[in-house]
């Protein structure tokens, strides 16, 4: 374990180590490599130049830059071709140097190792020295080649040594970029303080004619990369201060943890410890939402970009403008009232106009976080806590917790997995999977407390679902349980929850268009929307349709469903926004929302546009289905059939679930593509109220 250092040219070991680190591509000719000699993946020079080098050199308000250790291995090469080391000395030799004794081993002219051994005994501090002959040996980067390349690029640019290096052909990727960064640094910047940890490896047994050091290195590379796990998105959100989005998302969790009034969903209803790198759905059956959904809600309501809230006909896609998002953040949280045009924080000068997701004062981040928590954060939590289906889920989960008697170890572990122990759930799951694998292999593993705990969890799921259907549908009949499961299979998706947040953001944009707004009113506005949605869900249905099932998409459970989305992944949230808007366009719901709008026509226009986007999805889905079932039919004919069937399905759904008369739907359908589609020639709204 040692370090590589930047700074003025010197003959110190740390400076020489920096110059000696080499990616495989600079040690061997690519054309000479066979697949058995490939040690590494390709280098991404763009990533190194644009991301890693600035991270290494630029002073950050968030604290020092840190690179995990680079792993390098000493390997034999001659004329850029793999070779072998000379045999290592059979017996170490005791030598004197630097005023003490060392045990020395030498592999011919290839390399030499000395270990600190006063009195002939290896020192417990494990201090040693390594020399190698560069004409016979190379220190090859095994893990962390991008970090090593960042060091090399700075070193070669500073020393103007690109031309004579083995990496001269890559000079154009780096030299101008690095020089520009160096020119930007303060005159007092001491590059000698830039140190990167390095783990240097060699194989004592892999010396001599019959040894296979390159094969050993390849195995080590596989082992290092196989066992190394990239952090999950959940973990990054929980730990990273590099993005304001992460800080604000964590504030939502803090608000739930500190909610002594008990009027918000419990923290254990949020999954925030999922170890999967990419997770778009919760893994626990007990949770209502995930930290990833919360971040998406923060992202869209506070950072936008605004076009996705102002124009409901847009689908998500393409590269987002960081500047546009930062400017929207400043507007949504009213930075003008929080910060002067220019201010200092911990030795850094900030311009208010430059503040954003990556540029924000750490010393005053609580000011931003408090403003968010009082406005948009509170609104997000109101929706997730008080909207009828979500409230039913949370209440059922709390009832399950309060009725849980932890009278043995297995039950205690199961309880912790759902309600308190971060990471316990995943440990139980992995242990149970291992138990099943062993049993499938013919072994007879014992049922430990861990296995019993997992089985207890599975048994509790049915109890929870009964509690939830009782809360939501006030019934425990088998058909009600089945319908409720179908309903929550929709309500608990990322798309449905993010769609509700998009509805909030889009409706607030209407208010901003109608006149001045007060940011402090956002939570009360969210409360009004929730009251409207709950009024829609709570309508007395008797033998008619239960509006609590209005978002179900299973035709086996309900007839004429509005929700016919075939794939309910997160990007489909734009269609769920339409569903939430449509629910507000009913007599029971609009009564709660109407005081917030001066002109209802603006709402109807947005509703019409959102409906048109959803209609286009139905047409696209039906067209693909028809093209598969009716090969040989012309696309023009299939498109017409798809449009007709989509109109019929949408009209029936709006009639049965949202009180929209067929005549009104016909007027809307006829107006598609025309300006002011939300208003008929007689001036009557095309909504359902």
What can you tell me about this protein's structure?
The protein has 689 residues and is of the alpha+beta class. It contains 24 helices and 13 strands. It has helices spanning 13-20, 24-27, 45-57, 145-158, 171-184, 213-227, 233-239, 244-257, 291-303, 307-310, 322-332, 365-386, 388-402, 409-419, 424-440, 449-473, 478-491, 494-514, 522-537, 573-584, 587-593, 600-629, 635-658, 662-670, and strands spanning 2-5, 70-78, 81-82, 93-97, 100-107, 111-116, 128-132, 137-143, 195-201, 270-271, 289-290, 342-345, 348-351. Strands 1, 2, 3, 8 and 9 form a five-stranded mixed beta sheet that branches. It has a four-stranded antiparallel beta sheet with strand order 4-5-6-7, with no helix packed on it. Strands 10-11 form a two-stranded parallel sheet.
Q: What's the N-to-C terminus distance? A: 73 Å
Major beta-sheet overview: 5 strands, mixed
* Rounded radius of gyration (Å): 32 Å
Question: What is the β-strand count?
Answer: 13
Which shape, going by the Cα principal axes? elongated
Mean pLDDT: 87
Given the helix and strand composition, which structural class is it?
A: alpha+beta
Short description:
The protein has 689 residues and is of the alpha+beta class. 49% of the residues lie in helices and 9% in strands.
Describe the secondary structure blueprint for this structure.
Layout (H helix, E strand, L loop, with lengths): L1 E4 L7 H8 L3 H4 L17 H13 L12 E9 L2 E2 L10 E5 L2 E8 L3 E6 L11 E5 L4 E7 L1 H14 L12 H14 L10 E7 L11 H15 L5 H7 L4 H14 L12 E2 L17 E2 H13 L3 H4 L11 H11 L9 E4 L2 E4 L13 H22 L1 H15 L6 H11 L4 H17 L8 H25 L4 H14 L2 H21 L7 H16 L35 H12 L2 H7 L6 H30 L5 H24 L3 H9 L19
């Amino acid at each position: 374990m040692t370090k590589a250092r930047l700074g003025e040219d010197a003959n110190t070991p740390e400076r020489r180590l920096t110059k000696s680190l080499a990616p495989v591509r600079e040690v061997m000719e690519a054309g000479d490599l066979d697949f058995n000699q490939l040690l590494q993946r390709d280098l991404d020079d763009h990533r190194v130049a644009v991301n890693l080098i600035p991270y290494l050199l630029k002073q950050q308000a968030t604290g020092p830059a840190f690179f995990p250790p680079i792993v390098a291995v000493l390997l034999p090469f001659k004329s850029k071709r793999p070779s072998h080391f000379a045999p290592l000395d059979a017996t170490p030799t005791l030598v004197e140097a630097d005023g003490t004794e060392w045990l020395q081993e030498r592999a011919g002219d290839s390399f030499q190792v000395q270990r600190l051994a006063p009195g002939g005994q290896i020192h417990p501090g494990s201090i040693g020295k390594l020399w190698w002959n560069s004409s016979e040996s190379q220190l090859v980067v095994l893990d962390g080649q991008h970090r090593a390349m960042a060091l090399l690029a700075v070193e070669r640019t500073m020393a103007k040594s690109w031309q004579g290096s083995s990496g001269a052909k890559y000079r154009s990727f780096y030299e101008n970029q690095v020089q520009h960064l160096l020119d930007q640094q303060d005159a007092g910047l001491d590059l000698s303080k830039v140190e990167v940890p390095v783990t240097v490896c060699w194989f004592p047994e892999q010396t001599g004619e019959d040894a296979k050091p390159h094969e050993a290195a390849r195995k080590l590379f596989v082992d290092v990369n196989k066992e190394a796990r990239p952090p999950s998105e959940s973990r990054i959100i929980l730990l990273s201060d590099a993005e304001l989005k992460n800080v604000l998302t964590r504030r939502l969790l803090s608000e739930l943890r500190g909610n002594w009034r008990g009027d918000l969903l419990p923290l254990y209803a949020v999954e925030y410890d999922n170890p999967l790198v990419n997770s778009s759905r919760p893994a626990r059956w007990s949770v209502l939402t995930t930290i990833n959904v919360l971040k998406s809600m923060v992202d869209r309501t506070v950072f936008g970009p605004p076009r996705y809230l102002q124009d409901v006909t847009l689908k998500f896609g393409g590269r987002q403008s960081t500047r546009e998002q930062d400017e929207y953040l400043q507007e949504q949280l009213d930075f003008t009232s929080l910060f002067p045009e220019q201010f200092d924080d911990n030795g850094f000068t900030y311009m208010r106009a430059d503040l954003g997701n990556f540029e924000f004062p750490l010393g005053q981040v609580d000011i931003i976080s408090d403003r968010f928590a009082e406005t948009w954060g509170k609104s997000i939590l109101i929706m997730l806590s008080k909207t009828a289906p979500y409230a039913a889920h949370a209440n059922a989960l709390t009832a399950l917790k309060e009725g849980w008697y932890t009278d043995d170890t297995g039950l205690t572990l199961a309880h912790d997995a759902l309600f308190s122990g971060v990471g316990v759930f995943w440990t139980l799951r992995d242990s149970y999977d291992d138990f099943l694998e062993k049993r499938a292999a013919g072994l007879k593993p014992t049922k430990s407390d861990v296995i019993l705990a997992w089985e207890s969890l599975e048994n509790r799921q049915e109890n929870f679902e009964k509690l939830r259907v009782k809360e939501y549908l006030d019934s425990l009949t088998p058909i009600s349980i089945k319908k409720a499961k179908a309903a929550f299979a929709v309500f608990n998706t990322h798309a449905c929850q993010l769609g509700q947040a998009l509805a909030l953001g889009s409706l607030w944009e209407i208010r901003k268009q109608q006149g001045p707004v007060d940011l402090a009113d956002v939570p009360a506005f969210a409360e009004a929307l929730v009251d409207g949605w709950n009024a829609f869900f709570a309508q007395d249905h008797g033998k008619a349709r239960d509006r609590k099932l209005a978002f179900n998409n299973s035709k086996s459970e309900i007839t004429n469903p509005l929700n016919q989305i075939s794939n309910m992944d997160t990007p489909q949230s734009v269609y769920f926004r339409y569903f939430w808007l449509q629910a507000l366009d009913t007599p029971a719901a609009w009564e709660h929302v109407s005081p917030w709008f001066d002109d209802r026509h603006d709402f109807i226009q947005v509703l019409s546009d959102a409906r048109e986007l959803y209609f286009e999805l139905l047409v696209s889905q039906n067209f693909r289905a028809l093209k598969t079932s009716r090969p040989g039919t012309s696309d023009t004919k299939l498109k017409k059939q798809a449009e007709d069937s989509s109109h019929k399905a949408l009209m029936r759904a709006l009639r049965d679930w949202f009180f929209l008369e067929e005549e009104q739907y016909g007027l809307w359908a006829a107006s598609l593509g025309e300006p002011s589609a939300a208003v008929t020639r007689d001036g009557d709204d095309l909504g359902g109220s």
